[in-house]
Amino acid sequence: MKHEYEQSSEIIEMWYHTYSDDIYRYILMLTGDHELAKDLMHDTFLKAFKSVDTFQGRSSDKNWLYQIARNVTIDYKRKKSLFNMQLKLFSPWHQTLGVLIKSQR
Questions:
Q1: Arithmetic mean of pLDDT over the chain
Q2: Which of 52, 55, 20, 54 is nearest to 39 (CA)?
Q3: Checking CA distances to 38, which of 10, 19, 44, 76 falls within 20 to 30 Å?
Q4: CATH number assigned to the domain comprising residue 66
């Protein structure tokens, strides 16, 4: 009997070989960025590997992977948006701080 980790690895490897191109194109459609799509596609399969034991088969494995890809992409965009918002909020403060530090030299 194979260890659960080995079974999960085999399943994800099979899904990767079968669906990685489709998942990549889907994420590319959502992001418009080839390198980002590659990164998020790999994140998708990593997340699928970590949660493969929760896959209940109510939808096809392909649909499940698409849902993960969508969520990974949304999470990325949300974090990026939050980071950009924080950067804008603190940018004037950093500029003011930089001026104060320079003037004290």
A1: 82
A2: 20
A3: 10
A4: 1.10.1740.10
